[in-house]
Amino acid sequence: MNKMARIFLGLGTLILGINVYGQDGTNAGPKFVCDNPVFDFGKTDADAVTHTFVIRNIGDQLGKVKKTRPSCGCTVANISKKEIDPGDYTEIDVKFNAKGRKGNQRKTVRVEFEDSPPLTLQLKGSVVSVVEVNPARVVLDVASDQDIDRIVEITSQEPLEITGAETELSELVVEHETIEGNRKFQLHIKTKPGLAVGRRQGKIEVKTNHPKRPVISVPVWLNVIGELSVAPETIRLVKREGKTGTQQIIVRPGTTKNFKITDVQAPDGIQVDIRDLKNLGYQIRLDNIPTSEELNGKKVLIKTDVASMSEIEIPFEIR
Description:
Blueprint lengths: L2 H22 L7 E2 L4 E7 L3 E10 L5 E8 L4 E5 L3 E2 L4 E9 L5 E11 L5 E9 L3 E4 L3 E6 L5 E8 L5 E6 L4 E9 L3 E8 L6 E11 L6 E11 L2 E4 L3 E3 L6 E10 L7 E5 L5 E6 L5 E9 L8 E6 L6 E8 L1
Parallel strand pairs: 2-9, 11-17, 19-25
Antiparallel strand pairs: 1-3, 3-7, 4-6, 4-8, 5-7, 8-9, 10-12, 12-15, 13-16, 14-15, 16-17, 18-20, 20-23, 21-24, 22-23, 24-25
């Protein structure tokens, strides 16, 4: 090997050594760190937990945050700036929506960069409830002539006084009583006589003197069952001119267990197929339903051998 060749070989080896050392032994390029990537919020009864994470660029070049990826929809992350100079930092505000959650929680946010490995930030802790409601929601399936007294228990970890309880559902009466000092209570949900058949949805609002829970809201679904149960009560279809649709109607036993469907009448052109489900009732399939507004105001007529529900009308609604 001549002298010139040895010189070029030596220079190449030197340059290669510098590059390798720059990648593994220095902070060449952007490099991001978070000194405290885990935030333990301990125990909380708050509706939300927030924390600000600081991410520093300890490299020697400008770096960019590509995106943040929270682990679930209950967690959001907002970044103060996406371009970070060497020696500078950015802040990521993370908010965890703890409302309706209970027990140990662990939420993460993955931070991805353009020229640096990703970082994972974490919120962890336990969500506790000062006031617990059991059950948290009430579903009432009752016959039109049935009297019920459904109980909901309210337990407080701190002193509490219930000052009132009411519901927007006129078919129900709500009463409350103290079971144990100022820590445990019961709601009594009772039906009024002469309930009309159908489904309703509403809520019970319990007023208290607790600063964190001045109002406790309990969702209520009321389904008053007649001699027969029919679903849907209205056939709703999306308007699509020139197109047709399909719909199923289910007629099930209510307070009357044995019944027969004697006839089903639908507007002209709609095909009707009736299937006997034995003890489960009947399935009515409607085909070739025109999805145009001309069908509004028209109905399906179901005839049965039950005297109080001998004719059941189900209207169409095209929107």
